[in-house]
Specification:
Elements lengths: L8 H13 L17 E3 L5 H7 L3 H4 L3 E4 H10 L9 E4 L7 E4 L6 H4 E4 L21 H16 L3 H15 L8 H5 L6 H13 L3 H8 L1 H10 L6 H9 L5 H7 L4 H8 L1 H5 L2 E2 H18 L4 E4 L1 H4 L4 E2 L1 E7 L10 H10 L3 E6 L9 E6 L9 E7 L5 H9 L2 H13 L3 E3 L2 E4 L2 E3 L2 E4 L2 E2 L5 H7 L13
Parallel strand pairs: 1-2, 9-12
Antiparallel strand pairs: 2-3, 4-5, 6-8, 7-9, 10-11, 11-12, 13-14, 14-17, 15-16
Helix pairs in contact: 6-7, 6-9, 6-10, 11-12, 16-18
The structure holds 3 DNA strands.
Length: 459
Amino acid sequence: MIVPSGIGKKRLSLLQDKVVLHGGRLVSSFEEEGRLTHVIVDDMLSIDGFKKYVEDEARVAGVPVLKTQWLSRCLAENAIIPLGEHQMFAMPKICPTVLVGTSLGHPHEEQTKEISINKDGFACAHASGMKTDNVNQLITEELGKLAKIYKNSNDHWRALTYERAINQIKKLPKPISSYEEAKVLHGIGPSLADKIWEIVEQGKLRKAEKLSEGEKVRTLELFTSIWGVGATTAELWYGMGLRNLNDVKTKAHLTHQQQIGLKCFDDLLERMSRAEAGEIAAVIRKAVEELCPGTQTFACGSYRRGKSTCGDVDVLVTHPDGVSHEGLFQPLLKKLKLSGFLTDDLMIQEQSTAQQKYLGVCKLHKENAKYRRLDIIVMPYGELAPALMYFTGSAHFNRSMRLLANKMGMSLSEHGLRAGVVRQGREKVNDGHLLETPTEASIFQHLGLEYRPPEDRDH
DNA sequence: TGGCGGTACTG
DNA sequence: CAGTAC
DNA sequence: GCCA
């Protein structure tokens, strides 16, 4: 609901149009139907002025009353942004909030999460976790083809732009049907809007179709789908005249990683069920528990984000006493190898006691089990929250968090959040100081964001 | 026009 | 260092 | 390829 008082006529209708364009629903104060989730008012409106406008106070009880600036930013970012300082006030609540427990082994902060009544509203509220199906699937698929082609040919900044645009479009509740609707979105400029328009009109992208037919594009895609092969190597091999996996096996010089990539090629292209990812995580949890009781393991990545299938399994290992994680890595890997669970190493730093990351391949002990990618990181307990955040992703989510941190003069990594970071161009002049981040929620808080549970961290 | 996440490991 | 990956 |  937008309270028109104090908002210029022109601006009001502009805002209203945009809300609708983004899939929102405008609710008037007289309308009985429909849930009210947010109230937008002019910054200068007083509580009394507000009460006067709304006859029925029960109608707005507990609903946040926000400045127009909040709505503008939501529209610009195409997301429901934290209310924070945009919130002016809220009428006393009538509805209680509900506490819901989660069953996964998350740290205390996430054992309960608040579910308040005023959740969805306009659909730009889709914080990625709401399981709405993608109504612009055709568009995102076509753009995805180009994104991949650009990535495979080392044009990764362009690919990044495409991926961002795709993420943005996925959040939309309504199909895009015009150039203008696309162009309004943050991260979509003339070129992308053009392409989207073409997809809407023609049902496909000529450029993607044409490129996909090309031998080079198809070969680069094949090569880069081998683990350990990126755009540069693929291009090199193509230049050498290699065209298929057999050529690669017989004529290319392969790194250890690429040999494994080839050996497990078919299996690693597949995603596994969520259940299997859970089984794999359980194997590690059991081994860790036997080695050092009290050690905690967290299955992160897409598993923690609640996905129904997983491309790999990411397991974070730590110990609450802050010390026992040290020296745990080598015995753990040894034990997992001895049992035949770990089959190949992709990245392992054997001669350093400071190893923190292991990337490898595993296989469950059962009939027809497939090779699966497994990542393990061992972290000191003090870095648990930033590490969980990093390892849970998604990649795009991590990027945006770190970008925001930068803007605020901070720096976020899997080790911690620092404030007062001074940069001169790229290099840091001052490392700043570490902030206290006992929980993931505290990281959101430092950045002025509302907490987002893992399921809502897809974009 | 420069920047686009920040870091760990391999060869 | 470049390349690759998370 | 888009944005500040």
